[in-house]
Write a structure and sequence with these properties.
By secondary structure, the chain is mainly beta. The protein has a single domain (42-173), classed as Immunoglobulin-like. The protein has 1 helix and 13 strands; from the N terminus they run αβββββββββββββ. The termini are far apart.
Length: 176
Amino acid sequence: MLKIARPMIVAGLLIFFTMGATVQAQESGIIQATATVLSALIVRGEHNLEFGTVTPGVLKSVDATDVGFAGEWSITGPAAAEVTLEWDLPDSLILQDSTVGLLITFSNTDASYDDGTGGGQTAPAGILNPNGVETEDIGIGGGMSIWIGGTVLPRLSQTGGNYSANVVMTVTLTGN
């Protein structure tokens, strides 16, 4: 049996090695995978939204163009990059060391921006709706300022004291 198996093994090996000899010449090419990562965004809260002294029962508003009172953020990033702006807005300011709230509202025109094409806070480049997601381009100089106003609605029985809450703006590069 061993004598019969040997010729078959030799024939199988001969077929295997001759098949390898029929392989055509091969070439290969190389490419690189590349990506450009945009520089990081820097978002800074520059000024708090300040209502100052509020009288119980009397609404008090601050406009986004009110220098020294409107809230302000600065954004630094890649020149002319598209970003989305999204706010997390409080519905109440909370009395320090308490759970007592002072209602606050933000209208669809309570925010504005300047990307270097406007005249600053008092003559901004455009109006923003802080109640939704906005898409804008950072200025060609790589900067943008955002301002926000709002209205507080104190009740006649509003407890006296200092009230506050966080107003958060999230800025995201879109990649466009």
